[in-house]
Amino acid sequence: MQKPVTLTTTRKKINLPIDKLLPFLIPIIVILLWQVSSTLGWLSSSVLPSPIAVLQDGIELTQSGELPKNLSISLYRATAGLIIGGSVGFILGFVNGMSNTFRLLFDSSIQMFRNIPHLALIPLIILWLGINESAKISLVAIGTMFPVYINTFHGIRSVDPDLIEMGESYELSKHQMFFKIIFPAALPQILVGIRYALGVMWTTLIVAETISASSGIGYMANNAEDFVDMETVVLCIVIYAVLGKISDLVAKSFESLLLDWQNTGRSNA
Amino acid sequence: MNNSMITIKNVNKTYENLTALHDVSLDIKQGEFIALVGMSGGGKSTLLRLIAGLEKPTSGSVQINSTDTKSLIQVMFQEDRLLPWMSVLDNLSFGSKDKNTKAHAKELLDLVELGDYADHFPNQLSGGQKQRVALARALMSHPKILLLDEPLGALDALTRRKMQDLILDICQKQNLTTILVTHDVEEAARMADRIVVMKDSTNSYEETCPKNRNAGQIGIVADRVLGEILEEPEVQQQTA
Q1: Which SMART domains does the record associate with it (chain B) (predicted)?
Q2: Fewer Cβ close by (within 10 Å): the C or N end of chain A?
């Protein structure tokens, strides 16, 4: 009987500590240069406040409760919008991907609607829904729906027909065919859609909160601009960057968890 | 007593204006190993797909003579068609509803000498190993008929030879009715009881292979079949 080959991941790893630290190198260098420039007076605080000043502002706003309140409302809007938009996008992508009739009926209209920049809908949504929560959540939902739709649709449509035929030869039921073959085969593409949707989610929320809101990080930044509060403006931008990075990490973790088979490979043939 | 397992009668298959099969009739006995050979476009794979039930004939009939109706036929394709997100063991057991599926899958993995690879994913296996998993999967449902659609076409010569021996051994031990589609006439001459040449969309020639054949006999049969495929007049005269 043959012995199994030694298994390794296909991605070559550098020594572990360097591997972990390398992604933080450039942000750390940028922050250090930024701080040094501010301390030596090369960078005026009216142009860009120092990182320490921004950090202090963040601490003060946290202690006052303003930052946690605005952060939580922004997170709520983003999550609710993503869940609604992602679900609708997934269901439409699934239905159109699985059924030619539904595809012929819906896809052309959806593609037409997709080509309208969703941020152009802001005036219309304000007129319809005002500046309350449902307006901002709707905008995020519309923005996130299309990436999930497109990727779910194409993920399902591009499943290897050989695998479908194999499933048919094993007399799989429609339910088994979907859960054992079609969905796992489409999953990498669906996750790409979700990852892209996360980026759209934050962009949409920033714009929506800046234009029409009385709370949230975008509102905080807009309000700070009115008072020429540079520290808070920069703090809000940094918070968006951090939230975006956290979203990306969450998406990557999902990919690692659900697509672990992609990271396995043979060390020798 | 008629021990015919598959009866193909006057089968025609057309795709729009293209004739893939024309008036094909063939009788295949239980336990027989048939090789379908011929040039590309001769109708070999189409005939196999009709027998597998993956397509329907335009006219004529393909009759499977068995009281068993469930999982009677299994197909092994040139591409392994393993599900990359499932382990080897899960790839074997996913289509089965049997309670003892896992144990049976392990037995079959041992049979194809991959018992230690049950928890591996397909992308951790070589081409030959993947084809052995595909063979084990095809045997999972205890089929009576095994259809092999150029399953060894992408393998190197040595692996191919090992797989030929393995398939022959399994088919003989399990008394499987086997139909092999191949471009390799030597492979056909080595493995089959009977070789059917598919040419111009019909079965134009048949050659019964001697039992316990040696390398010389395999070569002679292969040359004769190749001659029929290529229509070499000299070889046809020798046959006559």
Answers
A1: AAA (SM00382)
A2: C
